[in-house]
Specification:
The protein is mainly beta. It has four helices and twelve strands.
Length: 212
């Protein structure tokens, strides 16, 4: 295991011969690239061509403590709350169509600014008003989440979701997590689905949802 504080890694070339990951993998980011401190997490997708009604896919992040729950409202980062309390995590804004190439939504993370009380960062994708519109995750194609070293633009990891989304009728999904182990962070792809989308996931992680 590589220690983030170990200076023997200075000048080491980053080994990126295979950056594809799948559910069940657990990757130590600091072992992958000991220089990493600021991440850009990009999520991209397209829609199946036969879907007439536009599908709005949203990316969210939950900052969890040791109890696997959020500590405060600011630990839930999404389109209506794009920045955490400590400023270390920022949501780049909402894409409502998934049109075009490249990342549709991004979240930037300064690992040094994430509170030591936060043990896990959980990434979710959900369909806005998916239940009301009769839309589901099976309507999404070419979906991925990737982790980039923001300092040099090198893509460290990529999890391609498309096979895990096939025929899924749910409106939300936990995509991946970043888990803290001392000074190290581990990336773990996840395919955990939620029938009621963002509302269900927010409640799962300790948020109080006020009905409008």
């Amino acid at each position: 295991m590589a220690d983030i504080l170990d200076t023997t890694f200075e000048g080491k070339e980053v080994e990126l011969t295979d950056n594809k990951v799948k559910v069940g993998d657990d990757v130590n980011l600091m072992e992958k690239d000991p220089s990493v401190s600021k991440l850009l997490v990009g999520i991209g997708w397209d829609l199946n061509a036969f879907n007439a009604d536009s599908l709005d896919l949203d990316v969210s992040l939950f900052m969890l403590g040791k109890d696997e729950k959020t500590r405060m409202d600011e630990d839930f980062i999404f389109y209506n709350q794009p920045e955490g309390a400590d400023g270390g995590i920022k949501h780049g804004g909402d894409s409502r169509s998934g049109a075009g190439d490249g990342d549709d939504e991004v979240i930037t993370i300064n690992l040094h600014n994430v509170s030591f009380e936060v043990m896990k960062l959980v990434f979710a994708i959900t369909i806005y008003k998916g239940v009301e519109k009769g839309q589901n995750m099976g309507m999404v194609r070419n979906a991925y989440i990737r982790v980039v070293n923001e300092a040099n633009g090198i893509e460290l990891l990529r999890y391609e979701l498309s096979k895990d989304l096939e025929d899924k009728l749910e409106t939300g999904m936990i995509v991946a997590s970043l888990n803290r182990e001392g000074p190290k962070w581990h990336f773990t792809p996840i395919a955990d689905f939620a029938t009621e989308g963002l509302k269900e996931l927010a409640i799962r992680y300790g948020m109080t949802i006020v009905q409008q």
